[in-house]
Design brief:
Layout lengths: L2 E6 L6 H11 L4 E7 L1 H7 L7 H9 L6 E5 L5 H8 L3 E5 L14 E5 L7 H9 L2
The protein binds [cytidine-5'-phosphate] glycerylphosphoric acid ester.
Length: about 130
């Protein structure tokens, strides 16, 4: 069984998030997702709209996702990979190269992002109303 692992904030869940999760699920048999906690988003410098509990519930409801767990810091990936027995770490290509240091324990894949949609852009459009 091939396990794929990924991480993200998934704020204001949109088609770009969905397409990425779909592409990641196609890489294996099981997809586990680390959803960034509200506290970790402060460290990432992201102002999130939707609280962690709701973001986690939305992502865990996606048919491509098998399990969700909290992402609390940058350094937990290596232990998560061991805990889940992950074979593949997949991220959108805006992270290209950033996780290559984990390639000794997992196959690292950077997948195309979905252009034209982002949480930042959604916030900008919504703020105009
Ligand atoms: N994404 C995408 N297309 C978009 C927007 C996002 O493919 N139009 C992807 C990103 O590349 C990322 C995932 O969706 O792989 C989640 O994006 P974010 O919620 O913005 O997550 P991010 O802040 O990049 O957090 O430790 C890693 C971080 O937690 C990643």
């Amino acid at each position: 069984m091939t396990t794929v692992i990924t991480y993200g904030t998934f704020d204001l869940f949109h088609i770009g998030h969905l397409k990425l999760l779909q592409r990641l699920a196609d890489l294996g048999d099981r997809l586990v997702v680390g959803v960034s906690s509200d506290e970790f988003n402060k460290i990432k410098g992201k102002n999130v709209i939707v609280p962690y509990a709701q973001r986690a519930e939305i992502v865990s409801s996606i048919r491509y996702v098998d399990e969700v767990f909290p992402e609390d810091d940058w350094a937990q990936k290596r232990s998560d990979i061991a805990r889940f027995g992950a074979d593949v770490l997949g991220m959108g290509h805006d992270w290209e190269g950033k996780f290559d240091d984990l390639s000794d324990v997992v196959r690292v894949e950077y997948l195309p992002r979905t252009d034209g949609v982002s949480t930042t852009e959604m916030k900008r459009v919504l703020s105009a109303f």
